[in-house]
Amino acid sequence: MLVDINLLPQKERDRPAFLIAALSILLAAVIIWAVLFFMARANTAEQNDYLAQSEQIAAEQAILRAEIEQTSGLNEEQQLQATVDWAVNYQYDTVPLLNEMVSILPERGF
């Protein structure tokens, strides 16, 4: 009977390519997941800001609509009377205006 005896040292195996490929794919997946997680978080915060702005604008619109409904409820005569009352009650200091206009005029105007 022949016995096969090998006295040469065993060759060390390199790391298998499959293990390295699996670890690199897993690492890439974790990095991509982290990036997408932080992007989703930022988008959620931005969306909340936009919702708050939208609610604020809606409140301002409601106020403006209420003001418009109050003025549109008046007929034309009442609107005209309100405009006349405003013009009568609006006081504008005319002396500075006249002084400024006179200063702009040429000295020898025709």
Strand count, sense and barrel status of the largest sheet are: none
Oligomer: single chain
> Structural class, please?
mainly alpha
- Give start-end ranges of low-pLDDT stretches: none
Describe the 3D structure:
The chain has 110 residues and is mainly alpha-helical. The chain has helices at residues 17-72, 76-89, 94-104. The protein is elongated. The model has no long low-confidence stretch (mean pLDDT 88).
Question: What key attributes describe this structure?
Answer:
single chain, 110 residues, mainly alpha, 3 helices, 0% strand, elongated
What is the compact description of this entry?
It contains three helices and no strands. The chain is an all-alpha fold and 110 residues long.
Write the layout of secondary structure elements.
Elements: H1 17-72, H2 76-89, H3 94-104
